[in-house]
Amino acid sequence: MDNRLQAHFRKQLINMHALALIAASFLEIIGYFLLVFDGREEASLQSRYLWCSVVLPVTLNVAIHCVMRFVLKKQRITKRIKNATAIGAALAMAFLVTVVHKEQALAGCTFIFPIMLSALFNDRKLLNVSLIASLLILTGTYFVFAATGEELLSTWYNYLCLVGFAVVSYGSGTVIIRYSGYSVAAIQKHTEKYNKLRADLLRDPMTGLFNHNTFISRLDRTVKRAAASAKPLCLVMLDIDNFKQINDTYGHDCGDEVLLFLANAIGERCQKGDTPSRYGGEEFAIIFENKGVDEAFDIISDLLEHFSRHRFSFTDTPITFSAGISEYDEGLTDEDFFELTDQALYQAKKQGKNQIFVCK
How do beta strands 321-327 and 233-240 pair? Predict the structure, then answer.
């Protein structure tokens, strides 16, 4: 179970325990007055039932609740200790209910609660401990009550029924944990599929860079952030020179090789926060957030040198690209910013290709 989910569950458990404490205390008090009304007890501070069956269990439950609340609120205590504390508090309350209401055999069924609670924590070890603790308490209670002639657990039949309930609860708990494991595995599998589908929607399937739609949406967001923060923002447009000629002469497989090489080189030079994208065809775009025009120019210059020096397997002729760079200026919309950069790319092509034109 996720840590945050367990933490949320433990907070609810504190409230549930407090509610159970209030309800149990109220019922103990009401039960005492009913016995007084029935003439079986006296309304006196000397009443042994009042102190042993009302004041003592209520006081102990309040103390247990305070300890549990203290432990579960501490940040430095591990989740396993917190879970064990919650189970311990449930076992203690079950024990008190069993002892106080010894005339009711079914009171021993309260031990089912901590066993099932362990299953909800998805902890097999804690589930085993809860079962063993429940059986030990039930067995010890049996011998004590049998020796004193009390009705609860004074017969093997009652004892075996309560043990049977505990074992069945344990078996149900193991099924819950196993089912939870399958559910988590299924959720993880669906999450992986979702993440892959989301990545496919965001990225170009061939190059692995962000696709056209992602670039457009991110450009809009980065322009708004730059306008609000006054931090630098640069946009670069790249276009492979004579790419149609490469496809026509050497074939589309060779063209794809060029695209992949350039895409990988772009990705290697981009950092977290940058948005390297395949804008379309042989055209690429890069959003450099928090980078000025000089820094962007140095990156693209290094990229151009690296790309033009590379010799592809199908030709010894250098393959180059042209690039346009512009820096965001206050008042520009994302469309204006893109148009400015596209015009810079056009100027690089117009002036002979294999170069970078910076719009100033």
Answer: antiparallel
Given this model, what pLDDT does residue 172 score? 81
Look at the block and give the residue holding tokens 């981009």.
270
Residue 294 placed within a domain: yes
Confidence (pLDDT) at 19: 84
Task: Please determine, for residue 242, whether its predicted confidence score (pLDDT) is greater than 60.
Answer: yes
- Do residues 222 and 152 both lie within one domain? no
In Å, how far are 158, 196, 266, 354 from 276, measured between CA atoms?
73, 19, 7, 20
Residue 203 in domain: no
Calculate the alpha carbon distances from 330 to 8, 203, 231, 357 in Å: 46, 30, 10, 21
Indicate if 149 and 279 belong to the same structural domain.
Answer: no
Looking at the predicted structure, is the pLDDT value of residue 199 above 60? Answer: yes
- With beta carbons less than 8 A apart as the criterion, state whether 109 and 152 touch: no
pTM for the predicted model, two decimal places: 0.54
Count of structural domains within the chain? 2
Q: For the sheet containing 275-280, what is the strand order? A: 275-280, 283-289, 233-240, 321-327, 356-359
133/110: higher pLDDT: 133
Boundary residue ending a domain (129, 160, 194): 194
Residue 199 counted as domain residue: no
